[in-house]
TrEMBL record:
Pfam families: DUF3360 (PF11840)
InterPro entries registered for this protein in UniProt: DUF3360
Protein keywords: Membrane, Transmembrane, Transmembrane helix
Name this polypeptide is given: Integral membrane protein rhomboid family
Keyword Transmembrane helix tagged: yes
Source taxon at top rank: Bacteria
Transmembrane annotation, as ranges: 35-60, 72-92, 104-124, 131-154, 174-199, 265-284, 290-312, 324-342, 367-394
Length: 398
């Protein structure tokens, strides 16, 4: 974790801070996390996986494919995606907090912390101070839990990680995996394609939330999807070569609170990088940051509830609710990437949502590009066994 924080900080400063100020910070690929056990079981290698993600991401960024797909996505599809991500994320964090509380034999702590967080968030909404939600909720959650007897102690002492890439990719040191072979690259190929395909809906949700939250005449400082893909791809490539095993995406836990506070990306990026370096070297702040009463409430009020609000805001007018409902339905069936690609195709064809919008699109925008994206995504998911009830086409993934 220390090594990943230091790697991330360097690229945050270099790109989001200076070279590409419209690129959101490169964080962790949240939707990919449930797939990691499948990749490991199939014999995947993290270095091969990371390098392929970086390569495919650069191709998409250079070809402007990310922004093109974003432009083909209607408000209804965007809103539905935000609603799904917001609800699933909120539910998962509540479940995690209760699981942690039950594990220490104090289930009531989770209820009290979440109840008080709801009241605090409502008051901040009322007084239009929602930008204070993350720090105050973290302080409230941690203080309440500790006061009610939840165990906590600082364990991570100050220090630096081993920053020699050959240590991490050695056969008997670091991850003890050695360097990847051609077979490793073949094994992770479908997952790398899927990981980069998942970037578009992930980036789109963050961009839309920022656009909704920022004031008028601030278009020049909005997050750019292609710039963010470039940054994420380069950070992924070099991070993997250096020995890191984080798989990156747009940093939602940065852009959502930053958008609420109506602050530009570069200044916040520099502060974030500075705090990451301090936490990595000092060590003790890392223990506090991952303590469940602090972490869960921060994610709930800082990311997932705001996504719910933005999704509901986007589906208030016209026939956007039709598309939003299909996105949620199909995302529950498989995952958000499948739900986004399927609904984008149906929406652009005019089968759901605004038929007038469909009529104004060119043939390429109406069904060719959305159709290709849906077929590619569905095919990759079928190959690796991610379509529910359907065995993987490639035997090694079964």
């Amino acid at each position: 974790m220390r090594y990943e924080l230091l790697i991330a900080s360097v690229f945050i400063i270099l790109f989001s801070g200076f070279l590409l100020p419209t690129a959101n910070l490169a964080g962790t690929h949240g939707p990919l996390i449930p797939l990691i056990p499948i990749v490991v079981a199939a014999g995947g290698h993290p270095m091969a996986f990371g390098l392929l993600i970086g390569a495919f991401g650069l191709v998409l960024a250079i070809s402007k494919g990310g922004s093109m797909l974003a432009n083909l996505t209607s408000k209804g599809v965007c809103g539905g995606l935000l609603l799904y991500l917001g609800f699933v994320g909120t539910a998962s964090q509540v479940k995690k907090l209760f699981a942690w509380a039950e594990g220490i034999g104090m289930s009531h702590i989770a209820f009290v912390v979440i109840f008080c967080t709801i009241i605090l968030y409502a008051l901040l909404e009322h007084f239009r101070k929602r930008w204070l939600a993350v720090p105050l909720s973290c302080l409230l959650g941690g203080t309440l839990a500790f006061a009610m007897g939840a165990p906590f102690s600082f364990q991570t002492e100050p220090g630096l990680p081993n920053m020699n890439p050959m240590y991490w990719w050695g056969e008997d040191t670091g991850w003890m995996l050695g360097l990847p072979t051609l077979e490793h690259f073949m094994v992770v190929l479908p997952f790398a394609i899927l990981a980069v395909a998942m970037w578009s809906p992930d980036f789109l949700g963050h961009q839309v939330f920022q656009k909704i939250s920022y004031p008028e005449r601030t278009e020049k400082v909005h997050m750019n999807i292609d710039d963010t893909m470039t940054t994420a791809s380069i950070r992924q490539t070099f991070g993997s070569l250096l020995g890191g095993t984080n798989f990156t995406s747009s940093w939602g836990t940065y852009i959502v609170p930053a958008a609420i506070a109506k602050r530009p990306i570069p200044a916040g990026a520099l502060l974030t990088a500075l705090f990451c370096i301090i936490a990595a070297i000092w060590g003790y702040p890392m223990d506090l940051a991952i303590w469940q009463p602090v972490l869960c409430v921060a994610l709930i009020v800082g990311v997932f509830v705001p996504l719910l609000e933005a999704g509901m805001e986007m589906t208030r007018e016209g026939k956007t609710t039709q598309s939003a409902a299909i996105v949620v339905f199909s995302s529950v069936l498989v995952n958000p990437a499948f739900g986004w690609s399927l609904t984008m195709l149906l929406d652009n064809l005019g089968l759901v949502g605004c038929k007038e919008r469909s009529g104004e699109l060119s043939k390429m925008s109406r069904w060719v590009l959305p159709g290709i994206m849906f077929i590619v995504l569905s095919s990759v998911m079928a190959l690796v066994g991610l379509l529910p009830g359907i065995p993987a086409i490639i035997p090694s993934f079964r």
